[in-house]
Write a structure and sequence with these properties.
With 203 residues, this protein is α+β, with helices and mostly antiparallel strands. The protein has one domain (11-196). It contains six helices and five strands; from the N terminus they run E-E-H-E-E-E-H-H-H-H-H. The protein has helices at 25-37, 98-109, 123-152, 158-161, 166-174, 186-196, and strands spanning 11-13, 16-19, 50-62, 65-76, 82-87. It has a five-stranded mixed β-sheet with strand order 1-2-5-4-3. A hairpin with a 2-residue loop joins strand 3 (50-62) and strand 4 (65-76). Helix 2 crosses helix 3. It is globular and about 50 Å long. The two termini are 25 Å apart.
């Protein structure tokens, strides 16, 4: 059985509904209403249908620029709770794009010290990202493998992942999942799967 989302269906996380709403901020700004119209947005709390319930702006750091994007809110017809509809190119609860964060973490995985990584984020922010990632990565890997078996009855060959770490390991595990619409980077796709079945873990 496929998870509760596809190209026409979003995934949820706490008081957010995370959906594929375009490949980039530019695409999102030009077409997010069309993407939203194609989605059947369900309440992450009770599964009820939703209706539009206003919007707000939030900023996103993209390299050395800051973009302001509209975020749609919806209200559940059943439990009356409201939820923000977040594009998947934004990491949950962070103002930098998932792509920028992934580039930084990849550099550190390859041996660069946080002080040497090229990023518009402060060194303090980069260190916090790394600390969070190191803490969450084992949980994410375990949750993805559990999800793969529970939903699709598939396992990952231990010999094939021996010695593989970090994003390479995540990417290898994600290759065992069905293809989905996403922003095309490992962190975004992992977060889609992790949050689609309430694993309690995101990167």
């Amino acid at each position: 059985m496929l998870p509760a989302f596809n190209s026409q269906s979003p995934i949820t996380l706490d008081n957010m509904i995370i959906a594929y709403l375009g490949q980039s901020v530019k695409t999102y700004l030009n077409h997010f209403l069309r993407y939203l119209d194609a989605l059947e947005l369900r309440c992450p709390c009770c599964g009820g249908g939703t209706i539009a319930h206003g919007s707000y702006e939030r900023h996103v750091h993209l390299a050395d620029t800051i973009e302001y994007i509209p975020i749609q809110r919806v209200k559940c017809n059943s439990c009356n709770k409201t939820h923000a509809v977040i594009p998947d190119f934004i990491s949950p609860r962070k103002h930098y794009s998932a792509y920028d964060i992934e580039l930084v973490l990849n550099d550190i995985e390859e041996g660069l010290k946080p002080e040497k990584v090229e990023s518009e984020a402060s060194i303090q922010t980069v260190r916090r990202w790394w600390a969070e990632y190191k803490d969450k990565l084992p949980q994410a890997v375990g949750a993805l493998r559990s999800l793969l078996y529970r939903v699709f009855g598939k396992t990952v060959n231990e010999l094939m992942i021996t010695g593989i770490k970090g994003f390479d390991l995540l990417e290898h595990i994600l290759e065992a999942f069905p293809r989905i619409d996403s922003g095309g980077f490992v962190m975004g796709e992992a977060n889609i799967w992790l949050s689609s079945h309430w694993t309690g873990v995101t990167l």
